[in-house]
Amino acid sequence: MASVIGIGRAAILGLGLIAWTAGTAPAQVPPEAAEISACLCLQQAVNTLSADMSAKNQALDAVTRHLADLDSQLAHEKPQVNIQNPDAVARYKALLEQRDAAYRQSVGQVHADATQATARYNARVNEYNARCANRPFNSALVAAAQVNLVCPPLQ
């Protein structure tokens, strides 16, 4: 009879533990699942920052190409400018002003935006590599984390 009471108490204790665990499960996430979510968010951030960096570098490349085109055009036009013709001088000066404006863009905000985007991307890639790369995560936990993934906004 003592063994039946012992089994009964163990069953009640076991059911109580299951109920307590089930009641607190949403608040408790296994450490590996939390790390997987963090890595998935880092991966998402890397992808977003990569797209931003590409767009900013394309804008810089466009300004640089435009500057090169204007430099070439100036080099071609300069020997042909008749300094006795005010209209020819005015056209050359206008072209020179366009070139100077393109140069200011290439070393100004467009360049700064591309440089900053590249730095943000590199920093996040380094963080991802240090924290997540080559880590063997449980594939079931990865799949579960992807379903309800909520990542903090990028800064």
What do you see in this structure?
- The structure is a single chain.
- By secondary structure, the chain is mainly alpha-helical.
- The chain has one domain.
- Helix 2 runs antiparallel to helix 4 and helix 3 packs parallel to helix 4.
- The N terminus is likely disordered.
Question: What keyword list fits this structure?
Answer:
5 helices, mainly alpha, rod-shaped, 155 residues
Structural class: mainly alpha
**Low-pLDDT windows of residues:** 1-25
SSE topology string: HHHHH
| Overall strand count | 0
How many individual helices? Answer: 5
The global form is rod-shaped
Distance between the termini: 66 Å
Biggest pleated sheet:
none
SS strand fraction: under 5%
Count of the domains: 1
Question: Helicity range of the residues?
Answer: over 70%
Rg: 32 Å
The mean pLDDT is 82
